[in-house]
Specification:
- The structure is a homodimer.
- Chain A is of the alpha+beta class and about 180 residues long.
- Helix content of chain A is about 30%, strand content about 25%.
- Chain A has five helices and six strands, in the order αββαβαβββαα.
- In chain A, strands 1, 2, 3, 4, 5 and 6 form a six-stranded antiparallel sheet that branches.
- Chain A is globular, with a radius of gyration of 24 Å.
- At the A-B interface, strand 1, strand 2, helix 3 and strand 4 of A face strand 1, strand 2, helix 3 and strand 4 of B.
- Strand 4 of chain A pairs antiparallel with strand 1 of chain B, so a sheet runs across the interface.
Chain lengths: ~180, ~180
Amino acid sequence: MRRIIFLLVAVATLAGVVGFTATASRHAADEAAPIFVKEIPAGYRDWRLVSVAHEEGNLKDIRAILGNDSAIDTYREGKLPFPDGAIIGRIAWSHVPSEENNKVFGREQSFVAGAEPPWYLQFMVKDSKKYAATGGWGYAQFDKDGKPGPESDLKKCFPCHQAIKDRDFVFTRYTP
Amino acid sequence: MRRIIFLLVAVATLAGVVGFTATASRHAADEAAPIFVKEIPAGYRDWRLVSVAHEEGNLKDIRAILGNDSAIDTYREGKLPFPDGAIIGRIAWSHVPSEENNKVFGREQSFVAGAEPPWYLQFMVKDSKKYAATGGWGYAQFDKDGKPGPESDLKKCFPCHQAIKDRDFVFTRYTP
């Protein structure tokens, strides 16, 4: 009798463990940890221009948004979502006055791209399977030495980009 | 005798006219009227990025400077002057606040590329013979409908660009 009780308890425990594991797995699939891009996409500086922007506040930068061929084609066709393989890059430079230009203009009006801030390069890489946990996009940031940004920073990407889920999570609009 | 005097006067007059014409031609060669570029260079929107800038004052625009392959190669090699065939393009858009971005940032800090101002597109086309009168560069401006800017505006290009003759008359520096 003891042996039977022991077996029953053992089976019940095992079932419980399996059941718990299965639940935990499903939970992990729903809220998987985001995966970040760890390498600078090759050749990004040769990509075509999507648009430009200027950030004040704590950033004080001027930026160019570039896209690889797949991203540019998608922008121009206006057909969302971006396909797997599309990559959007963002280069930021300090927003600095140009003494040289101001002298020619005869007034303080001209700002140009200066040094690279710590958030110099950012990328969004589309891979709907690999980056399923973050809307199909992998996020990346690199400083001028190619060092990836801290994960604590990268974790902030997707929550903000969710604000524009209906544009496939991409803020920048293409300007002809 | 009358006939001889008439001939002498005729020859002297003719010589004078020829002499005057020759002088005028030399004068024209020294201070030739600038020749402006009348057509938008094909495919410019696919060119690679040189840098970005922002103009306040009366312009209030944000701009991207692009270069064709020859221009980009020259920039990257750092070997001036630019060769014949190099073209540098400048696209300007109104510098407008982005309500959408500001909402996400939680503060007024974000500016993006808006509508096309009348000085939407500008180009410098290198042809050391054709544009010899203006430092080897032909200048052009177009609005969003492709209409060339007034010659009175274009005449202002070269005098300003002379300030940077030692950089082959090109203001914008390449930013990696």
